[in-house]
Design goal:
269 residues; TIM Barrel; pyridoxal phosphate binding; 10 helices; 14% strand; two-stranded parallel ribbon; 8 strands; PLP-binding_barrel; alpha/beta
Amino acid sequence: MSGDGESRPGTTESASAETTSRETAPDGTARAAREAELRSALDRLEERIDAACRAAGRDRASVRLLPVTKYFPASDIEILYHLGRREFGESREQEGAAKVASLRHLAQMRWHMIGRLQRNKAKSVVRWADTVHSVDSDRLVRALDTAAGAARDEGARTGELRVLLQVSLDRDPARGGVVPDDLPALADQVEKTENLQLGGLMAIPPLGVDPDTAFAELAGLHDALLRTHPGASELSAGMSGDLEAAVRHGSTCVRVGTDLMGARPITSQ
């Protein structure tokens, strides 16, 4: 599903979000200052990724930067769009849906749901997300497959929903993710669906664990997955503080929020 405005939520909530986005858009001076901040941050991140790829002996084109824009206004995303970015990551389903609705005038955008996803959000997320990074259970697979099929029948999306399996490297179900031993069965289940495409793996290093150790394990799991599912080439790993380690171990997508967007804005929530 392309992010070209063909399938956007048309709810009252989305209309309200669009109005709010317009009302809170920065004036010309503030926008120019924010654009300068984001341009500078992008340049610094590109330099870091370039250096990480050189150190790892990898082609720079093999690693994508995914801006994580949760909590930040749609106006920031629009600035990044005009700086050449087309892919964006959101962690909260409702917030993501509202931003997609408010930015439907921008062509060729691709949206990623990277946060934990409850099954009751499946019907909504399939209408705006191109990729879901946080699939970790057979029940969520079934919910997304059913919802994506219904959305395709209704003309609310075109094509399959791309999904990444979130791996629990600390084996703690409270933090989300499928334990490594259950990964092959879950991958097989996704491959049997009609409306999902297995894209690869995603993981977050456990708290207190050396990122190199965590990403080395993840790389091994990804290599094993590729032997049985060669199309699952995506490895979504690495954030602001550990992207170099992730690139060393084969990440194809680094998800960066703080080092690009800055400190989380203060809200009333």
